[in-house]
């Protein structure tokens, strides 16, 4: 299959509608587009830099937690939720009741991502992992009655209120298992001779075209990108998340996916995807550099605290994964008294490391504002 002569599939008449039946992708591929090859080289280079850079950062897992939080927020934004990163890092009790459903959807995404990444330590990337991840994604939120963790057994559609005005109707439910089996085989195939970044771009397109679940396909499809990057060894740590780029270019994202189906224009989708990898890798490297600079700055500041330096360093470690918090939560996390934490937090506010947000004397909430800015 040449990229230049790609045929995406065909429309099949059903009762009162036509469904799109894509070709199978587990086949021999040939990359024959010079523009795509050039962008592939640039994206590979930047992704390699990110992978190397992330391995040099001490305690990088603390910072990855915030990258996952941002990904959960951005990927959910694409689906219409309104939770922002400041809300995503807070405890449920601080979330306005009208926003709790959206907040929970983001929390589910974060849990789903973390569980899926952990699963790759003992399982290959597979439909089993995708199903398990989907089940977590929909627990207790919108879509909880739409077969969580199971491929669909009924027809779905994208856009519109019914088949009559739908923007796109994915393949008939009778073919979903076969399509997803082909997709899984393609993940592990060594016959395709495709570079990994081209492969994951095709995988994401095919997954979104199959739309194998009744709900949550967009989020699982975007999560699949990071899972594949880790599974394939392109990333040692899960440090690249594409949803921020896709949200900022949402119209182009959907238009390019549609153009593959309607115009067989796979090359344009590949160029868009590779540009997303390049830009996101650059942004992630920049964010990590800013984190290191901030870390050096605050560690210099706490040198003025004398004997409290050890406790201050423990609190800082906690703040890198929980940058909005209260005294009790922090005291529990570092296992000291609330009184000790209260004195230290006053020092942190004085040193302009933390900002107190409530203005209360009790039940105060503190934000690591400079750190949060890096992920907004």
Q: What does the secondary structure layout of this molecule look like, with pairings?
A:
Blueprint: E1 9-13, E2 18-22, H1 34-55, H2 60-78, H3 85-88, H4 100-119, H5 127-137, H6 176-188, H7 196-210, H8 217-231, H9 243-248, H10 250-263, H11 266-301, H12 309-321, E3 324-326, H13 327-334, H14 338-350, E4 355-356, E5 365-367, H15 369-373
Antiparallel strand pairs: 1-2, 3-5, 4-5
Helix pairs in contact: 1-11, 2-4, 2-12, 4-5, 4-8, 6-7, 7-8, 7-11, 10-11, 13-14
Commentary on this structure:
- By secondary structure, the protein is mostly helical.
- The protein contains 15 helices and five strands.
- It has helices at residues 34-55, 60-78, 85-88, 100-119, 127-137, 176-188, 196-210, 217-231, 243-248, 250-263, 266-301, 309-321, 327-334, 338-350, 369-373, and strands at 9-13, 18-22, 324-326, 355-356, 365-367.
- Helix 2 packs parallel to helix 12 and helix 7 (196-210) packs antiparallel against helix 8.
- The radius of gyration is 23 Å and the shape is globular.
- The two termini are 41 Å apart.
What structural class do helix, strand and pairing data support? Answer: mainly alpha
**Rg on CA atoms, Å:** 23 Å
- Span between N and C termini? 41 Å
How many helical elements? 15
Side-by-side strand order of the widest sheet: 3-5-4
Largest sheet: 3 strands, antiparallel
**Oligomeric state of the chains present here:** single chain
CATH architecture of the largest domain: Orthogonal Bundle
CATH homologous superfamily descriptor of the largest domain: Fido-like domain
Question: What is the CATH C-level name of the largest domain?
Answer: Mainly Alpha
């Amino acid at each position: 299959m040449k990229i230049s002569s790609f045929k995406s599939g065909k429309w099949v008449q059903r009762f009162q509608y036509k469904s799109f039946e894509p070709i199978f992708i587990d086949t021999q591929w040939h990359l024959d587009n010079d523009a795509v090859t050039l962008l592939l080289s640039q994206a590979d280079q930047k992704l390699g830099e990110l992978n190397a850079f992330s391995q040099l950062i001490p305690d990088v897992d603390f910072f990855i937690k915030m990258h996952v939080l941002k990904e959960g927020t951005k990927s959910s934004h694409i689906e219409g939720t309104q939770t922002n990163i400041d809300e995503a890092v807070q405890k449920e009790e601080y979330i306005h009741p009208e926003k709790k459903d959206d907040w929970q959807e983001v929390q589910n995404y974060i849990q789903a991502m973390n569980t899926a990444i952990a699963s790759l330590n003992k399982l290959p990337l597979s439909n089993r992992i995708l199903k398990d991840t989907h089940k977590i994604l929909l627990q207790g939120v919108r879509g909880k009655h739409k077969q969580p963790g199971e491929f669909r057994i009924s027809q779905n559609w994208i856009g519109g209120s019914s088949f009559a005005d739908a923007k796109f109707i994915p393949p008939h439910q009778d073919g979903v298992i076969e399509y997803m089996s082909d997709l899984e085989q393609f993940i592990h195939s060594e016959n395709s001779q495709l570079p990994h970044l081209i492969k994951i771009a095709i995988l994401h397109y095919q997954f979104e075209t199959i739309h194998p679940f009744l709900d949550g396909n967009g989020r699982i499809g975007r999560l699949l990108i990071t899972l594949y990057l880790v599974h394939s060894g392109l990333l040692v740590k899960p440090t690249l998340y594409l949803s921020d780029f896709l949200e900022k270019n949402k119209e182009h994202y959907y238009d390019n996916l549609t153009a593959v189906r309607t115009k067989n224009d796979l090359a344009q989708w590949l160029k868009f995807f590779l540009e997303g990898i390049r830009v996101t890798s650059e942004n992630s490297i920049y964010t990590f550099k800013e984190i290191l600079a901030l870390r050096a700055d605050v560690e210099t500041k706490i040198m003025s605290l004398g004997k409290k330096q050890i406790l201050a360093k423990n609190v800082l470690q906690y703040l890198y994964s929980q940058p909005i918090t209260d005294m009790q939560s922090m005291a529990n996390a570092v296992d000291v008294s609330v009184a000790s934490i209260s004195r230290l937090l006053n020092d942190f506010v004085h040193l302009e490391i933390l900002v107190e947000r409530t203005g209360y004397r009790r039940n105060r909430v503190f934000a690591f504002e400079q750190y949060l800015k890096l992920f907004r």
